[in-house]
Amino acid sequence: MASSLTKDAAQQGTPANGGKTFFGHPRGLAPLFMTEMWERFSYYGMRSLLVIYLISGGPDAETGAQGGGLAMKAATASAIYSIYVAMVYLLAMPGGWIGDRIWGPRKTVAIAAGVIMTGHLVLAVPGQAGFFAGLALVAVGSGLLKANISTMVGHLYDGPQDPRRDGGFTLFYMGINIGAFAAPLVIGTVGQSVNWHLGFALAAVGMALGLVSFLVGTRHLSPQSSVVPTPLQAEERAMWLRKGLIWVAAAAVFYGVVGFTGHFTLDWALIPLALLGLIIPITVLGRIKRDKELTDTEQTKVSGYIWFFVAAAVFWMIFDQAGSTMSVFAEKKTNGQVFGMDFPSSWFQSVNPLWVMALAPVIAWVWMWLARRDREPSTTVKFSMAMFFIGASFAVFIIPMLMASDGTKVSPMWLLSIYMIQTIGELCLSPVGLSVTTKMAPQKYASQMLGVWFLAVTAGDCITSLLSTAGADLSGPPVLAAEAGLAVLAGVAVWLSRKKIVALMGDVR
Distance between CA 420 and CA 348 in Å, rounded? Predict the structure, then answer.
């Protein structure tokens, strides 16, 4: 009996006989916490430099000192940034599939960390070719890691009903915000103040620390994390390999012809990827909606979920411009000095995770306080609130944009306030969206719907990229006003249709 209990405890990641824990949770949470923290450190550190590096000029004209960026236009830099973020979230779906069908979560995460680290090292090598190769590697690695590491956190607990499960995920996500907060302060400072490529190299060091933490702590993970849940059969493997090679060959021939004829420009890569990032979410949702195996109730819930998905895509379209439009504004039009101390513009990228850590407990307390009085807003109302806040943030953004139009640098308090408004919106939408996704998912697609939720980020960022490549001035007041108006209209549409959406949601609230 005792050996059976010990075995069960080991499989659930629960220490037997009063063993060590990680803040009261299975010890395996520690390496996963550290891996995710360092991965986010590398991701947000590099992201804080990305657009600033792209728009910065070449070698100094007077001193000849190196350290300049790629001297791109702000619109091009924003398009590249948006496509990069979109691909990270788009690749989370095939990343989860690879973990489920080929390598298993544990092996997939180890390989993903190695790919991310390699990508940052390639970014550390000067040159435009290395930059794009490194960016692609980081996107692929992040997509592989994203879904699988969360799956392994779930493996540590005794099913969905384990009372420690929610607390474990809360602790795990704290690692995300710690890494995201610290990264711009360290990597951003070194990249902007010392050398861009040294900053990218520090991101590689961060991911290396995460990989070491993971490999050292694997003995504390659930054995289930090494299992391939539904392994590919030999004929399936051959089919997927054949399809993959056909698509790779077709792309190689197409771009070879374009390049050989001298017509290739960066838009030939950006626009197809952006269109792909819109087509795939629409196709995936359409395929689920048309599935004849779904019950009438499940079909109805999918129809209701589409409302949330579209609203979320509009939300992320604005929110993710924190690293592009707002980053350019911070670099060029914001006073980088507080109390006589100068600081690099990349530090602004630490503001959102700081606001999250400060406001999340407050928002959670407000929801609980309202719930005790039976007045907590419904999911539809929370989404409406999120759309109002994200729209309001860009409406406020117009004011400092106009103030800086004559060359004046505005106070950093403007950006701090805008980030605060956006964070309140994020806390109304992101956790609620994750929850409603799992609740409204058809049984057949229970494990895939989280990837579908991430596709809302992909769709939103691809719209931003297409606007940039089409020549829209994302930093101009007219475009800011249009985006703010679109978000508010989306929020009003959800609010006015709340009774219809609630009816479609069935038993979900």
Answer: 12
- Joined tokens for residue 204: 């590689």
pTM: 0.89
Helix (H/G/I), strand (E/B), else coil: 22: strand
The full DSSP string for 122-140 is HHTS-SHHHHHHHHHHHHH
* 468 CA to centre of own chain: 20
* Residues 134-187 pLDDT 10s: 999 999 999 999 889 988 988 898 876 778 887 888 788 889 999 999 999 999
* Cα–Cα nearest to 419, from 504, 485, 505, 327: 327
Q: Which of 478, 458, 479 is nearest to 468 (CA)?
A: 479
Q: Distance between CA 36 and CA 91 in Å, rounded?
A: 17
* Tokens read off for 450: 């989280």
Q: How far is CA 420 from CA 110, 173, 385, in A?
A: 35, 19, 14
In this prediction, residue 9 carries a pLDDT of: 39
* DSSP three-state, residue 70: coil
pLDDT, tens digit, 9 for 90 and up, residues 200-229:
999 999 999 999 999 999 999 999 999 998
3-state secondary structure 351-410: HHHHHHHHHHHHHHHHHHHHHHCCCCCCHHHHHHHHHHHHHHHHHHHHHHHHHHHHCCCE
CA gap 200, 158 in Å, rounded: 40
Q: Are 105 and 148 in contact (CB under 8 A)?
A: yes
Structure tokens at 71: 């001297």
Q: Can you tell me which residue has the tokens 């060590």? A: 20
Distance of CA 236 to the CA centre of its chain: 31
